[in-house]
């Protein structure tokens, strides 16, 4: 799951601008970093690969607001509500800025809102897209979350000190005057500095600082849940879902952390396949045994049957023939069918014609009304016969012949 992280330049970019970037193969380790024109930036590869645009701390301002109730966060109405809430706090017109809510923002609760220049952000992203590096996410370099921390970044000519915590993000030029504006940090709070400004930072802050390269910080920023691509910068809901699914599956299929789960899934599938095959074999054996028992019963009861094609049908025929030979009455006999029909017909109704083919009795000329036919059919059913109509003719047969 390769990720390309591109730091957006503070100045308005052009085709000649060199973009600072970092590449991570797994979202945690830094594989490569440097500067390059947009068209020559590395192309992330593999399933779930993505491009993350990083907004520098100097380009982003943070405001704490209480979201209005009854307005969903990811809607144009929320954008309008934010314009009203922040209008007096902004130096620019609300139409000229882009708003982004913190992850998990809910209506009626206090949240952090990131604000940056909309035209600047759109221009930078369009240049990346023109170069074939469409940004899947937009993340802040520093965000108001986590434990308090301090970092000194930039170059030796213009170092910047940044304090970040859940209480906000403050960035100031590194100078003795700025120290009084920084919040007090706990003793165990991380204090970091880029190599180019570490010496100057230790002299000004009078503290020991841990070295951290900017690309390492960018990789950590890309791991957060922040995504500033909201409102008119938001991707379609479908593309976001597909991206999350692809990223999740890529992690499941390729990362070492999921290897035990992959082997367990393979073992589970194999066990189920073996079990299904064993169950199917057992069911086939049981069915074959039952069929053989029926065939054996037929040939033992009626030895004259030499070839068994459909044992139940052949046995039924042999039983019927045996009844005729011995004179045993059957529900299929003509007198039995006639007796049932005489019992079921309305009083005074006599068929004009009768036709019997050995199984079905066709009684014509009854001229029954629909209600009378239904009543006759119901009575016949209780006697074990089925009745159907073919024009003015009633067809009656024993139900076991249907």
Automatic annotation (TrEMBL):
Pfam families: GspL_C (PF12693), T2SSL (PF05134). Its main location: membrane. It is found in: Cell inner membrane. It is a single-pass membrane protein. Keywords: Cell inner membrane, Cell membrane, Membrane, Protein transport, Transmembrane, Transmembrane helix, Transport. Residues 11-141 form the GspL cytoplasmic actin-ATPase-like domain. The keyword Cell inner membrane applies. Residues 255-358 form the GspL periplasmic domain. The keyword Transmembrane helix applies. Belongs to the GSP L family. This is General secretion pathway protein GspL. It comes from Ramlibacter alkalitolerans.
């Amino acid at each position: 799951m390769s990720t390309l992280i591109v730091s957006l330049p503070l100045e308005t970019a052009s085709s000649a601008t060199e973009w600072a970037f970092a590449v991570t193969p797994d979202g945690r380790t830094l594989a490569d970093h440097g500067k390059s024109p947009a068209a020559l930036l590395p192309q992330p590869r593999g399933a779930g690969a993505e491009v993350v645009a990083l907004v520098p701390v100097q380009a982003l301002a943070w405001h704490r607001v209480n979201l209005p109730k009854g307005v969903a966060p990811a809607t144009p109405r929320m954008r309008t509500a934010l314009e009203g809430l922040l209008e007096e706090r902004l130096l620019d017109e609300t139409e000229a800025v882009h708003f982004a809510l913190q992850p998990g923002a809910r209506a009626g609760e206090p949240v952090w809102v990131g604000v940056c220049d909309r035209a600047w952000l759109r221009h930078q992203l369009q240049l990346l897209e023109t170069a074939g590096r469409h940004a899947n996410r937009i993340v802040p370099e520093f965000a108001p979350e986590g434990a308090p921390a301090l970092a000194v970044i930039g170059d030796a000519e213009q170092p910047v000190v940044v304090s970040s915590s859940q209480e906000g993000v403050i960035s100031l030029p590194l100078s003795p005057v700025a120290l009084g504006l920084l919040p007090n940090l706990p003793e165990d709070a991380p204090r970091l500095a880029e190599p180019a400004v570490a010496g100057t930072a230790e002299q000004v802050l009078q503290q020991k600082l841990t070295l951290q390269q900017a690309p390492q910080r960018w990789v950590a920023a890309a791991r957060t849940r922040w995504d500033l691509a909201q409102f008119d910068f938001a991707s379609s809901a479908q593309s976001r879902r597909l991206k999350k699914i692809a990223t999740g599956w890529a992690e499941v299929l390729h990362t070492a952390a999921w290897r035990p789960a992959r082997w367990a899934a393979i073992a589970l599938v194999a066990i189920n396949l073996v079990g299904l095959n064993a169950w199917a074999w057992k069911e086939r054996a049981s069915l074959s045994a039952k069929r053989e028992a029926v065939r054996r019963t037929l040939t033992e009861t009626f030895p004259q049957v030499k070839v068994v094609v459909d044992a139940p049908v052949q046995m039924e025929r042999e039983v019927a023939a045996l009844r005729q030979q011995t004179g045993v009455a059957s529900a299929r006999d003509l007198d039995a069918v006639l007796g049932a029909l005489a019992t079921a017909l309305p009083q005074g109704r006599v068929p004009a014609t009768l036709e019997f083919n050995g199984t079905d009795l066709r009684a014509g000329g009854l001229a029954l009304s629909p209600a009378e036919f239904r009543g006759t059919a119901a009575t016949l059913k209780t006697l074990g016969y089925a009745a159907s109509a073919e024009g003015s003719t009633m067809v009656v047969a024993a139900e076991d012949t249907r």
